[in-house]
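User: Need the bound-state model for magnesium ion:
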Amino acid sequence: MAHRLGEAGSEGAAVRQRESSAMNALELRGVEKSFKKRRSEVVRALDSVSFTVGRGEVVGILGPNGSGKSTLVRVISTLVVPDAGSVRVFGVDAIRHPKTVQRSMNRVSVEASFFKKLSAMENLLYGAKLYGVTTREAKPRIKEILDNIGFDRKRASEPMEHLSRGMQQKIALARALLTSPVLMLLDEPTTGLDPRSKRDVQAFIRRIKAAHDSSILLCTHDMDEAEELCDRVGIMVDGRILALEEPEKLKRRYARDGHVPSLEETFMAATGYTVEEASA
Ligand SMILES: Nc1ncnc2c1ncn2[C@@H]1O[C@H](COP(=O)(O)OP(=O)(O)OP(=O)(O)O)[C@@H](O)[C@H]1O
Ligand SMILES: [Mg+2]
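Assistant: Bound-state model below.
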């Protein structure tokens, strides 16, 4: 009898586990990744990383240079295989089923790759095709997205290599949005943009958050961006996530003598880095 109960109990736990996984857009458990450097030196880029991103939630990760943010994004997007731990995207094991999870997410990073000689429009149509979206369906949607992110449509027919880095970044974002991913992985989406473009992109992230019910993981050095756009913010140092909670709670955790610090002060207290040092 005890044995049967035990069985039923573990089955129940398995069902609960599946249900909680399906409720979350992203679930990481004990993810580890080390890189071998020169000689016998090893860098632990990800050290027991565990957290979730709920459906429709925007989670920000703040961390100094080299803290592991891009590695985290690469592991989730299945470009890098972790040494240990599990990654689930809408309940699906990303390590066992990379092709399946790739379809439900999209990564935007500063190293976005394009066909440099082709135009922005051609690159976007190509991107759409990879996800099974026809040119006819894609064209009006591309126009809408370009208008929304403040990209001058006239320039969409110029070769990618003629566009500034900020413009290319907008095209990378447009390409990710075109396929309506349910999970967006944004690795410093506004780094290198001029203030106006930055505001355009942030406003657009806010809109997709409101309208599309997309879930977003946003790695950034920008404290205001994190505070304004994210439901929860995590602080990453040396491959570890030190804290991950609502910005207000995070700040209150570091309150001293009744003074609730700004997110920037909180970041400095948690990491020992100033914001300038962290993004140098
Ligand atoms: N392919 C690789 N081979 C060797 N080391 C790597 C590799 N990728 C990342 N690393 C190392 O892992 C650590 C984390 O790097 P990562 O790029 O994830 O940091 P990051 O937080 O994105 O930094 P930044 O803010 O500068 O973009 C660094 O020490 C980096 O040198
Ligand atoms: Mg990075």
